[in-house]
Amino acid sequence: MRRHHDDEVHGDEIHEHDRGLSYDLPVLARRRMIRLMAGVGAGLVPLVGCTADDTSSPAAADSPSASSAGAASSGECAAVPEETAGPYPGDGSNGVNVLKESGVVRGDITRSFGDSAGGTAEGVPLTFTLTVVDAASGCGTPKRGAAVYVWHCDREGGYSLYTEGVADENYLRGVQETDERGQVTFTSVFPGCYTGRWPHIHFEVYGSLADATTATAITSTSQLALPKDVCDAVYATEGYESSVDNLGRLSLESDSVFRDGHDQQLAVVKGSVEEGYTATLTIAV
């Protein structure tokens, strides 16, 4: 069952839906059970993911430096836990629904669109590609015509549509239909690190673009994690100052979402601060 609210925190404030360890333990137990069921072929197909390093992808182009933290070996396809959408989804499950607005279908998510304030998110450039494949085929068949909705925080750790100061913006949110390779590629900026959460990108997979733009029939909800060495390099640049201390108090093993396993959610990231970064992740549904 999909959870819309978790122990995600923002800024110095812990949200009222943070119920602590007593709430997390049964959730973590459920997620481990999902993995066990997947391993014995229980007849259910959970969200499955593989880290990807597909050089045919626009987001996997060679660059001066590269980092691939926790990448799975080529051809590996392992179950990825269903994750919370968090308190800032913008999909109608917690207030505002950006998915029904004209302009949400786009590849460049750095700018706001429509009747919003029209701002632009600043930060180190990040282009990321998600490849959706069919789990039943062993991750060998692309899911053409599916749709992916993505969203993440800005350089300062704020979420458009929700956070004070950017509540009138809708940048760093967008939807795309997968192409013949099952891919969607988004142009964005590297997200900041706010108190209590490892740097991440949220995504929802839908069966079709029509499903996505009516915010119905979500197939899968999860999160992409970003590797520490890349985060360290980005956060040493201007504008990310608050992220340095926040990241210093965290690890993937202590993060409220990734602590029970993150290998299949950790993106392969390449690039540099000067030229920008690319990230790739393959997910099977």
Question: Can you characterise this structure?
Answer:
- Residues 1-49 and 51-74 have low confidence and may be disordered.
- Strands 1, 2, 3, 4, 5, 8, 11 and 12 form an 8-stranded mixed sheet that branches.
- The protein has 4 helices and 12 strands; from the N terminus they run αβββββββββαβααββ.
- It is of the alpha+beta class and 285 residues long.
Structural class: alpha+beta
- Unreliable spans are 1-49, 51-74
What is the total tally of β strands?
12
The whole-number mean of residue pLDDT values reads: 79
Radius of gyration: 17 Å
| Number of DSSP helical runs | 4
| Helix fraction bin | 10-25%
**CA-based shape:** globular
Order of helices and strands: HEEEEEEEEEHEHHEE
Largest sheet: 8 strands, mixed
- Ends apart, CA distance between termini: 16 Å
How big a fraction of the residues is strand?
Answer: 15-25%
Task: Show the helix and strand layout.
Blueprint (H helix, E strand, L loop, with lengths): L20 H19 L8 E4 L14 E2 L10 E2 L45 E10 L6 E2 L4 E5 L21 E5 L5 E7 L10 E7 L2 H5 L4 E8 L2 H8 L5 H8 L19 E5 L3 E9 L1
Parallel strand pairs: 4-12
Antiparallel strand pairs: 1-3, 1-12, 2-11, 4-5, 4-8, 6-7, 6-9, 9-10, 11-12
Give short descriptive properties of this protein:
single chain; 285 residues; alpha+beta; eight-stranded mixed beta sheet; globular; disordered N terminus
Concise account of the structure shown:
The chain is an alpha+beta fold and 285 residues long. The protein has helices at 21-39, 209-213, 228-235, 241-248; strands spanning 48-51, 66-67, 78-79, 125-134, 141-142, 147-151, 173-177, 183-189, 200-206, 218-225, 268-272, 276-284.
